[in-house]
Amino acid sequence: MMKLNGNHHTGSHSPSPSERDAGRGPKKRSKAGKAAAVVVCVVLILVFGAVAWYIAWEKPPERPGGGLVDPTYESTNPQDGGSPDATAEPTVSPAEDPNAGAPASLNENMYTFLVVGLDQVSNSTDTMMVGRIDTENHTIDVVSLPRDTLVNVSWSVKKINTLYSADINTGGNGIDGLLDGLKDILGFRIDCYAVVDLTAFVELVDAIGGVDYNVPVNMNYYDPTQDLYINIPAGEQHLDGEEALKVVRFRSGYASADIGRIGTQQDFLKSVASQMLTLGNIPNLPTFIDIFEEYVVTNMSASNLAFFARQFLLCKSEDINFHTLPGNYGDSIKGLSYVSINISEWLEMVNTYLNPYDQDVTEANVNILTHSSSTGFYSTTGYVAGGVDSFYDNTAAFSSADGTDSAE
User: Fold this and answer.
1) Which CATH number applies to 82-398?
2) How confident is the model at residue 80 (pLDDT cuts 50, 70, 90)?
3) What does DSSP assign to residue 146?
4) Which is nearest to 161 in space by CA: 142, 137, 141, 144?
5) DSSP labels for 222-277?
6) Please, are residues 231 and 222 in contact by the beta-carbon 8 Å criterion?
7) 65: which residues sit within 8 A by CB, 6+ positions away?
8) CA-wise closest residue to 326 among 303, 309, 306, 349
9) Cα-based angle 234, 238, 239 (whole degrees, multiple of 5)
10) Which has the closest alpha carbon to 302: 49, 58, 56?
11) What range(s) does the Cell envelope-related transcriptional attenuator domain occupy (predicted)?
12) Which residues are CB-contacts of 167 (< 8 A; sequence separation ≥ 6)?
C-alpha cells in the first residue's frame, strides 16, 4: 500500500490529478462560486422584476369611441362665409346607412393613430399619415394622405393640409380642427395623435445610429426662406438625422411632386422600422420615449408610448405596410392643384386597413367632396361647403395685363 506524503511517495507510480481528486471525495463549492451564483440570481430577479414592472406600468390609451359618425352638413369653419351649394348632378343620391340602428363596436385589439409633420413657417401639415395597429395579429398599416387632398370645408383653399392652420386662425389649437376634418373622410374619430417637430425626426434617426437607405434620385434644392439646403446624391448611403430629414422633405425633383415624395417617405420609414426592430435597438426604447415626450405634441402619456413601443417590437418588418390615399392626383380646380378622392377605393382601403369597428364605413358615414372635369362636383352629404364659388381662383395669378388668360 502506498502512503501519500505531500508530493513525495515511496513507489514508482505518480498518481494522476484525477486519482488524487478521487481520494479526496466530493469537491466543495468555493465561496467565489457561491457568490457568483447569488449575483446571477439577483440580476435575474432584477431583470424579470423590471420587465414585470414595465409591463404593469405601460397601458393602452383611452379611446374616444363614439362609433361611426353620421355626418349632416355643417360648415366646420365658416370664416369665409357663403352658403352651401347642392352637389352639381351627383352620381348617386346621398347615401343611406345600411347599419342604421345598430351601433358599431370597437375592436379591443385595434388602435388608430395620426402622425403629422408640421411646417413651422405656415402652420400647415407638411406630412400626414393615419394608421392602425392590430395588437392581436401584430400588424401595422399606415396610409399617407397627400397634402392637396380635397376636403369639404367652407374656406377658399379646400386642401387637407389647411385644416390645422384654419383651426388656429379661428382661435383653436389646430389639432382639434384637424381631427374633425379627418373624421369627415374616415367616418370615425382617431384614437391617438402625434404632431412631430422636425427636431424629433432628426433625434430619432440619430438615436438608432442613422439609417442605411438607397436615395432614389439626386436631390438638389435651396429655399432661403426656410434655410433649407439639400444636396444629396442618389444611391445607397448611410444617413444621419439631418440628412434623413432632407431626404423625406425633398419633393421638387419628382415628376409627381408630393406623390413621389410620399413614396420616398414610405420606403425610408420601412428602413427605419426594420432597423428599430433589430435586437440592438431594444435598449434604446427609453431614449425614444424621452425624445417623443420632448419634441412631440400628443395625447399619449409615457405609459401609452411604452405600450405602443412594446407592441411595435412584437411586429415583424414584413407586417408593417404603407399605402397611399387613392384618388385623381392630377385634379385642378380654378387653377389650383387638388387630389380628388376616389370614394369607392378609399372606403375599401379604410375598411381593410384603418377601420377599428366591427361594421364597415359607408358613404353614409363620411363627408367627402370629389371633383371631376367631366361630371363636376359630388359630395356624399349632397352639399359643397361654402358654395362652389368659394374656391380660391388661382387663374388670376396667370392673367396677362389686358385681362385675358395666358397660355400657362
Assistant:
1) 3.40.630.190
2) very low
3) -
4) 144
5) EETTTTEEEEE-SEEEEE-HHHHHHHHH--TTSTTTHHHHHHHHHHHHHHHHHHHT
6) no
7) 106, 189
8) 349
9) 85
10) 58
11) 125-277
12) 77, 173, 174, 175, 176, 177, 178
Angle between helices 198-207 and 241-249 (to 10 degrees): 130
Cell output for 155? 374656406
C-alpha pair distances (Å), 30 with each of 25, 33, 35: 15, 5, 9
Q: Which three cell numbers stand for residue 173?
A: 389649437
Q: Determine the pLDDT at residue 227.
A: 80
Per-residue pLDDT tens over the stretch 90-126? 444 445 555 655 688 999 999 999 999 987 766 778 8
The pLDDT confidence band at residue 277, using thresholds 50, 70 and 90, is: confident
Rounded distance between C-alpha atoms, residue 75 and residue 62, angstroms = 29
Strands 327-333 and 336-341, how do they pair?
antiparallel
Q: Could you give the CA distance from residue 116 to residue 161 in angstroms, rounded to a whole number?
A: 10
- Which residue carries 360648415 as its cell? 75
The pLDDT value given to residue 254: 78
Other residues' Cβ atoms within 10 Å of the Cβ of residue 359: 18
**Are the C-beta atoms of residues 355 and 349 closer than 8 Å to each other?**
no
Strand 124-134 with 139-144, pairing: antiparallel
Residue whose grid cell is 353614409: 364
Q: Which three cell numbers stand for residue 232?
A: 444629396
CA–CA distance, 216 with 268 (Å, rounded to integer) = 10
Handedness of CA 299, 303, 309, 310 (dihedral sign): negative
Helix (H) or strand (E) holding 167: helix 163-169
Task: Report how far residue 83's alpha carbon sits from residue 80's, in angstroms, rounded to the nearest whole number.
Answer: 10
Bridge-based pairing of strands 85-86 and 383-384 is: antiparallel
Coil vs helix vs strand at 307: helix
How far apart CA 228 and CA 249 sit, in angstroms, is: 10
Helix or strand (DSSP H, E) at 14: none
DSSP 148: T
Q: Give the largest CA-CA distance in the chain.
A: 129
Cell 403629422 locates to 116
